[in-house]
Amino acid sequence: MRGAGGAGTAGPVGPGGGGVNLLALRSHNAALVLDLLRTAGDEGISRLELAERTGLTPQAVSKITARLREDGLAAEAGRRASTGGKPRTVLRLVPEAGHAVGVHLDRDEVRAVLVDLRGTVVGERRAALDLGAGAGAVLGAVRETVTGVTAAGADRDSRPGAVGGGSLPGPARLGPALLGVGVALPGPLDHARGVLHRVTGFPEWDGFPLREALAERLGVPVVVDKDTNAAAVGLAAGGEGGSFAYLHLGTGLGAGLVIGGSLHRGARTGAGEFGHQVIQLDGPPCTCGNRGCVEALCLGAVARGDLREAARVLGAGAANLVGLLDIDVLLLGGRTVAAAPEAFTDGVGAVLAAWARRTGQDAVPVRVAAGGGGAVAVGAAELVLGPVFGRGGV
What we know:
- The protein is 37% helix and 20% strand.
- The protein has eleven helices and 15 strands.
- It has helices at residues 28-40, 47-54, 58-70, 135-157, 210-218, 227-237, 294-303, 307-325, 335-339, 341-359, 375-388; strands spanning 45-46, 74-80, 88-93, 99-105, 109-116, 121-128, 178-185, 189-190, 195-196, 222-226, 244-249, 253-259, 262-263, 329-333, 366-368.
- It is globular and about 75 Å long.
């Protein structure tokens, strides 16, 4: 399944092929301003506040905001009384001025979401998928799903009064004002090059340049990362702070690790293969080739309907992770967790509480991650949006 051509660098693409002129991609200061506009919401923020919070001069802020307004990325949100002098003009982000698509490629399903610049989901598509059906079938399914969700977004934004309508050049005719597509799927993979390794259970993908292949077919920049990393990025962008681990239990099991506010991918972008830690020597075989992996034991218990045992096994692996990283909170997600959230939070929490008593430490809290079944796809879209707002390190 090797071989494909096409561009693969992330960047903005807009109607007419010239690109949405997002200053953040070549100006750190503009990214700071855009991020503050984003977090200010509909209430907006004044130029003086922007200068105070960024440390930039008022003149620099005025130049940046003027360009952002010119590009349709910022607009006036009214006026606010000041302590002296005339009222201050308040600016806000125009969320519909740009969009990103996030794609979750699971072993049996593809889900795509269209999000605006605030990360709000404005469209969604899902379809059945067999990740082992071959590159042609999988790439075709992704293209069809992405085209469908962006076409729906273009129709929505072409209504009277909407901003950002229009289609993009390229094989899939994507729009509106699409910055790129983030794709998340099971690992291991090389995030930096967008190349898959021996995806657990699907070794035929080894060496396949997924980023380039999809960029060629979609005609827009593509970013590729593991499903767990994408979800962790989305959770961090949504306000989850500190150091946390996101454990995704669905058709497989993996972890996304955020340490001190930054996603930890590792030197070879392979961190987070949580499901393939061996906790039972000579245990049942795992699809990775080892025996006694957390994933094999946990999914085996799920298949038998023994959720108590599945949660206990997951908790044992989680205790190892907590002992190694000393994280603030453990977040659980994935379709298997979503089907019985209390069974998993209670079961994993009980194992971590027992571990804490033995070590004399405070127990690490366990929660279901926000976002439900769409957390990975939304996080994949954040892989595209993050650099726009100066958050490329998460």
